[in-house]
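in:
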């Protein structure tokens, strides 16, 4: 009796489940919409690459001439500075004390020199024969010369101390804009290379885009070809690019896109373009999508047609 009831129920349930699965599988696949539309490029054939924005002067990592504890930070992020403007200063109390000691030594050397010169003048004015031997007179002359040498050394030490004191204030090497400030009063500033720049400086009147072109596409590149850059996330923001130069050394690729065709050992040729800094709201360190017109296809076709025409 149970089999007669249960088996038909299971069969009907299986049928409804199969129909439901068929209906679910026949629904059209809904694809997720991209965050932003891909850029539309008018070049029929093109070379693409990722470009990173940098200052026209390169991003200059300003370091300290001498190590020490930072006493004051003069520059702020976004501030425009001129050549020689102070960026930050190292605590200079020890340097000023050393300068004061060296200046005192100059005064001491000057007093000693004046005394020896006075004694030499007295010896030169002696008119009594035999009152002063030639040896004593010569000793006084050499004593004056030695005192003059000590005076010159003392003054040189003062100048060296002033140079060291001036080097404790790090100044802007170029006119530009402060991009980063990674140092604070009370922190230690080393004089060697650091993982993060103490102060990052660059001129943003013109911006450069450093484009990585795959080594397989390097032969297709032409310096005279047109190029355009798009802001990532908004393809309506674009700017034409002006060619600047090619880095003459092909380097290993540093950023990976995750494509299956990409190899870890891929090497890239870096090409630098420029555009006005006020033409787009982009910042140094930002990535842009760069497209370069590929003229190799037409050149290859013309060469092939020329070879065919010359054949009998």
């Amino acid at each position: 009796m149970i089999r007669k009831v249960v088996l038909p129920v299971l069969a009907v349930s299986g049928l409804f489940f199969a129909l439901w699965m068929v209906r679910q599988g026949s629904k059209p696949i809904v694809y997720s919409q991209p965050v932003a539309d891909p850029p539309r490029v008018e070049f029929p054939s093109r070379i693409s690459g990722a470009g990173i924005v940098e200052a026209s002067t390169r991003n200059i990592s300003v370091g300290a001439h001498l190590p020490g504890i930072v006493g004051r930070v003069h520059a702020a992020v976004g501030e425009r500075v001129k050549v020689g403007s102070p960026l930050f200063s190292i605590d200079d109390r020890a340097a000023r004390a050393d300068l004061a000691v060296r200046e005192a030594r100059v005064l001491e050397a000057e007093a000693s020199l004046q005394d020896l010169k006075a004694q030499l003048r007295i010896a030169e004015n002696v008119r009594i024969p035999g009152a002063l031997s030639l040896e004593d007179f010569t000793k006084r002359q050499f004593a004056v010369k030695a005192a003059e040498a000590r005076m010159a050394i003392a003054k040189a030490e003062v100048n060296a101390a002033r140079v060291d004191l001036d080097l404790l204030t790090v100044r802007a090497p170029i006119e530009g804009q402060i991009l980063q400030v990674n140092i604070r009063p009370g922190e230690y500033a080393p004089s060697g290379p650091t993982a993060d720049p103490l102060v990052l400086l660059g001129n943003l009147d013109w911006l450069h885009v450093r484009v990585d072109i795959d080594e397989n596409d390097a032969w297709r590149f032409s310096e005279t070809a047109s190029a355009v850059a798009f802001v990532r996330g908004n393809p309506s923001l674009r700017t034409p690019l002006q060619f600047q130069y090619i880095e003459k050394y092909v380097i290993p690729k540093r950023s990976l896109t995750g494509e299956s065709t990409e190899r870890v050992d891929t090497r890239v040729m870096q090409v630098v373009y420029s555009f006005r800094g006020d033409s787009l709201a982009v910042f140094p360190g930002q990535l842009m999508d760069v497209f370069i017109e590929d003229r190799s296809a037409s050149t290859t076709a013309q060469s092939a047609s020329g070879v065919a025409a010359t054949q009998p």
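note: The longest strand covers residues 46-55.
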